[in-house]
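Dear Dr. H.,

I hope your travels went smoothly. While you were away I took the liberty of generating a structure for the chain from your last submission, since the lab meeting agenda had it listed for discussion. I wanted you to have the full record in hand beforehand rather than looking at slides cold. The sequence, exactly as received, is reproduced here:
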Amino acid sequence: MRTADSGPWMQCFLLFAGLLLTGGTACAEDWPHWRGPRRDGTVREDSGYDRLAAAGAGANWPAEKPAWQRNVGQGSSSPLVVDGQLFALGWREQREVVQCLGAATGELQWDVSYSAPLYGRHATGDQGLYSGPSSTPEYDPRTGYLHTLGSDGTLACWDTRRRGEAVWQLNLYDQFAAPQRPKVGRSGLRDYGYTSSPLVHDEWLLVEVGAPSGNLMAFDKRTGRAVWSSESKSPAGHNGGPVPLRVEGVPCAAVHNFDGLLVVRLDGARAGQTVATYPWNTEFANNIATLAVDGQRVIMTSAYNHYKIACLEITLAGARLVWQQPLASKVCTPVVHRGHLYWAWQKVICLDLDTGELRWQGGRVGDQGSCVVTSDDRLIVWTNRGDLLLAETAVRSSREYRQLAARTNLFRHDAWPHVVLSGQRLYCKDREGNLACFDLRAPNASP
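The corresponding predicted structure, in token form, is as follows:
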């Protein structure tokens, strides 16, 4: 396996050398985190559409057939791709299973598992819509460790350089007694267990525990020892996880928990101290969409009892509302790209980032949805029960939604897991664990 320092640069260099010969413009990137290499839904790879169009096969984007398909177990957890390996977390036969597959072939390289229920111990409501783990693993390039979080609170660390050898493991419910999420207003009681992805920051693993000792907690990423807890004691929300940002030069983390926005410091002895809050309590505790970040601005959105999207400016003195619009995303986290916001819920939507003004909307999208913005300014949308859409961003189409291609009914179950683009391969997964890989390099390219 490559070293953490030299691998990505060598990978880009080798690809760049090949692209000089083929006229390409993209650099392959690993996908080691929730929402991609920079945790923001953008990649420095192209969509592959122009290659297919030049060969007269643009209507078949992303490819006529998947390069490979495999079932990796139930759950809405998204795959990661690192150094030619794909990591997936799923549930089967009363166990949560961590698998390592060849990213190009889908062949199993190793797997590890542990006993786990299909739902978290406090689970209630909507069990027909979810099952198995929802949290996306977190990969640490410094150590080669893969951190996973199961729906019943099993937080574990695996050494990918030693075929998934267990490094440490603990259970958040057992150790910190996190309660069932409270009922919100007149909405039904909901608890989906642990859903959010952990976040590696330096030597810490940040997790939204939602316990009486703290909403956010930091663990030593090498040992699992609890290091600090946030001042906030809010219950955990149902969301994709904490996101990093810098506020006036101070490293911070932000999360949309049960009560709303929470921003905490990550610097030394002040770690865990509250920087800003913003009330946003959502019916069913279902804010779902992860916060989007642009510099010191945080974008929040949810439907349910809010049906709005808002942009907040964060300073060390707190949060200030910049703009708010009566538009919403239920599940899909907005993607910030070149002065615009994009997401897919009911329709594919584009807003002006500075003003919140609607630029365009279109397409047919359900509750399910995730987006990736590519280096050739295309928007890949994974939605419904296995529909892939490709559309132009506002850079290419500033006044209207312009769809280039669509592939429908690739699966029969909800497309809750986030779509992944890495190494010129597109990975699509449904909540039943069906995973398909499409090769974007060239028409009829072999794996």
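Two observations you may find useful: The first strand starts at residue 68 and ends at 71. The mean pLDDT is 93.

With kind regards,
E. W.
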